[in-house]
Amino acid sequence: MDVPEVAAQVFGDGLDGAERYAELLTRHGVERGLIGPREIDRLWERHILNSAVIAERVPRDATVVDVGSGAGLPGIPLALARPDLEITLVEPMARRVEWLEEVVEDLSLGVSVVRGRAEERTIRKKLGAVDVVTARAVAPLARLAGWCLPLLREGGIMLALKGASARDEVARDAAAVARAGGSTPTVSECGTALLETPTTVVIVERVRAQSKRAG
Ligand SMILES: C[S@@+](CC[C@H](N)C(=O)[O-])C[C@H]1O[C@@H](n2cnc3c(N)ncnc32)[C@H](O)[C@@H]1O
């Protein structure tokens, strides 16, 4: 598959790693149930670049938890584009955890992989108080806020990669996000100068602890 020209700009020195990741996903992603067969042809634009461009919203040297990493999205492209970040991938399914560990080793990335659910007490204790939590295609915004905001330090941000539903989800779930200790969600586009279809991200800051009524 041809590598889009813009990939060099997005990944810089991480381009070889990104190409290798694309190769691994192309070779094993479908057979291992990580990615649909129709996604292979649009792996770069729709998945790898789409994930990496959220880097523009992540502060330098931040600690990051990627919740529900699955095939490694957005955590692996983010790690390749931004070697300054300290990234942990959280995923409950054993065979996906195995895949993520293999990818991290193959690409020689300094990324940690943890098996578990974001809302588990042990996971919160182990990973809590990070600067940024990312999540892509994991859950509706209200549930995501309940899972992800407790992992953040006060002032930390959740970046939820959403498609066309972003604004509707914000309108529907803003009150639940507030109960979970989040700010008013904002919707932002990442990669506008780079991608034909920029990545839509819902951004929520953790402003305080979860209220007792939040689920
Ligand atoms: C649809 S997949 C998306 C995977 C990847 N983020 C992507 O964009 O391709 C959702 C992933 O979230 C994981 N997941 C579901 N509930 C979770 C939870 N409570 N905590 C962490 N991960 C969860 C699933 O196991 C699955 O790998």
Automatic annotation (TrEMBL):
InterPro entries: rRNA_ssu_MeTfrase_G, SAM-dependent_MTases_sf. It is found in: Cytoplasm. Pfam families: GidB. Keywords: Cytoplasm, Methyltransferase, rRNA processing, S-adenosyl-L-methionine, Transferase. Its main location: cytoplasm. It comes from the Bacteria. Its EC number is 2.1.1.-. S-adenosyl-L-methionine binds at G68, L73, A118, E119, R136. The keyword Transferase applies. Belongs to the methyltransferase superfamily. RNA methyltransferase RsmG family. Specifically methylates the N7 position of a guanine in 16S rRNA. This is Ribosomal RNA small subunit methyltransferase G. It comes from Amycolatopsis acididurans. The lineage of its organism: Bacteria, Bacillati, Actinomycetota, Actinomycetes, Pseudonocardiales.
